[in-house]
Amino acid sequence: MRLRSLNTQILLGAVIGIALGVGLAALGRQSPVTQNGLYVAGLIGTLFVDLLKMVLIPLVFASISVGVASLRAHRQIHRVWVATLGFFVLSMAIAIVLGLSAANIFRPGEGMQLSMFADATSAFAAKQMPLSQFFALFLHGLFQNPVTALAQGNVLAVVVFALILGIALVIGGERYKNLLLLMQELLEITLLIVGWIMRIAPLGIMALLLNLAATQDAALLATLAKFVVVVIGSTLLHGVVVLPLILYLVTGMSPLHFWRGAREALVTAFATSSSSATLPVTLRCVEQHLHVRRDIAGFVVPLGATVNMDGTALYEAAAALFVANLAGIDLNFGQQLVVFFIAMLGAIGAPGIPSAGMVTMVMVLQSVGLPVEAIAILLPIDRLLDTIRTAVNVEGDMVGSLVVQKLTVDR
Ligand code: ASP
After folding, report:
1. Is the minimum distance from the CB of 169 to ligand 1 under 6 angstroms?
2. Looking at the predicted structure, is the pLDDT value of residue 3 above 50?
3. pTM (whole model) above 0.70
């Protein structure tokens, strides 16, 4: 029976979770059924995310170092680097242009005033983060004692150390073949454990989405409906039209085939709102379902999970224009260009965790002199918007690995 396939179970889990969540919301927050339901769903959802995070660090560490080591052996590392970074920058640039265009056309927030949200904004203490400080922090976070980075789960620093280790493994060659073998085995055994964790994925995803659906504030959503629709619409346009089109043009792969292979990761990203937590599933999808070579996937996907965020880039640009409209400020072309670059930096710098984009959003607002307190308006709806944005972030990584494979290996 089709029901037995994990893909189908995950989709079913998602639908049932949302339906149950809406049901509980209808019962009301005070009802004991709702409270108990949310408690149990909270436990299961957290367990699932914790399990994914448990394997995340060994997986990133092993997959990047093994990926780089085997790429060097094939003398393709240079082409892979260029293709990967080129794809990341280009796809984020398209996403930002889409976000800016949608916000310019539909002008969400126009006619509303920031003062309507005075209560929210006055209660919000904005953390100022000028660009120079952000850059210094970002750079500082790249290089860390690997033991600290591994222990603290600092994904970006682990990525950087694994890249360096991978290069050293190749340059050292035969002398370090045992260490390479060890890393390969570590990678394989972590992927095996990921397979086990995926067995509870349908339940975990059901629980996460139940919680999300049951705790949304409908009244607030209605006030900000236009902005929510513009962001979701343009993010979907990027995820459903632009990325599949790039994929089709470069590799000839049909979108349906892609989605079938990518579904597990897309639904997990949607439910967890975290590219990092989804990474074990993403790697599994590209390697096992979409047949990307392990060295390419092991390099592009973990790097993409922390660096390549199309959905986040699009969101930050659109949200900046929304806040400008609320504040009654018209951003001219030059200012929008600044937003373009800072939104890209913000997306690159945001770690793959829930609502990370909100933190770097502060920087985008500051870059064009917009009131940073406006974040207080965006925060309550962020859990909802983070779902689709993270799914598109993860989709970008998967499309990226297929595109890079086509551009570097298959020719
Ligand atoms: N939650 C997003 C991710 O993990 C980052 C963001 O907040 O935009 O990809």
Report:
1. no
2. no
3. yes
